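User: Need the bound-state model for DOR:
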Amino acid sequence: MTEVLHKRAYDTLLLGAEIVNQNGRAMADLAISGGKIAAIGALSGAKAADVIDCKGLTILPGVIDTQVHFREPGLTHKEDLETGSRAAVMGGVTAVFEMPNTNPNTTSAEALAAKVAIAHHRMHCDFAFFVGGTAENIEEIPMLEKLPGAAGIKVFIGSSTGNLLVEDDENLAKILKKITRRASFHCEDEARLRARMDLRVPGDPRSHPVWRDETAALLATQRLVTLARKLGKRVHVLHLSTGEEMEWLADHKDVASVEVTPHHLTLHAPDCYERLGTYAQMNPPVRGIEHQNKLWWGINQGIADILGSDHAPHTHEEKHHTYPASHSGMTGVQTLVPTMLNHVNAGRLTLERFVDLSSAGPARLFNIASKGRIAVGYDADLTVVDMKRRETITNKWIASKCGWTPYDGMAVTGWPVGTYSRGHRVMWQGELTGPGKGEAVRFGDALQPA
Ligand code: DOR
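Assistant: Bound-state model below.
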């Protein structure tokens, strides 16, 4: 281990962990000062206000979940920014990008500023908010996408929860022409969804992936990427659900980046609908095992760029409406790390690839300033995990306001035991350790004057 020369006392020392970073995996100590990573190496002789024994633990760069719905303002009976971010840090997540389908929708500078104001030092993790692109705010997009706290523009090409929708190529092209950052898209073809509505079988959520079929997803993705290529723009395809899209996108990596969710990698039809009913109902839907296998192929071939949970909480009551009136979405921000570590332990991906998908990948795609790797000078955002710990995920553990997870009762190996956000220890061994200190994520392509 590199002997580090230390002339000063640090704020925090984490001793004896395995660290996974751009150097690979190695045993090392880690020092934090002023919220930043200050040194990595042999540090046991150094002084610090706080010294933590991390023997047997693994330290990863802070996990960044680039797709969550935290429902505030307007839908706070389901979730709010405090409870959603509490769930995030309980699950080892250090930053989230939150979606614009709140009430009001986040489609204006005022709505974005209001979200940033209620999030600052109330959320437990760092945050950025997507601004919804619509036919009405096209002219403002160049200004909106670069505002403080903005993760970029998000467009629903197919309708889901809420009323945000840009279904036609004409308006999509107008939006694409305006964007300079990478914009994110929910890809399901709205005309096809409308035409197939009669395929929904009342009371039977197994018909959800029949209605919102593979072709609806593929068509929208192909339309989007074709337009983006024509216009010379970078686009991000959210929550890929089909093997066909993964295969097709492999030939378009210069233009399009790809997100996969833990639920599309973990659950499959018809099993999930038979076990969980409408609790497995999500847009785009969870599909058959052949799609899940192709998504794993995309993870292992490097086609998928990042993981996002698409945490989309609804109350038990909203989930208990008879299908199709039941709401689409499931929780996921708190279970992203344990479900994926379980997949690592099962040999489905390496821990290094997990770090690539959940820290380095988000930093690369969205040009996040000083996050996404364990390196001196970067924010001390850390996800501390115990790769050997066996736990059972339960509804009781879920900090999200709606209080449920589709993984209730699932045994996993690998568990988040600590979360550091800019040097603050915000969660340790399942305990939240203080009030929220979350701040807006900063982006290299939208840096604000100091
Ligand atoms: O199932 C979903 N629920 N998919 C989405 O894209 C939106 C989300 C929500 O906000 O409930």
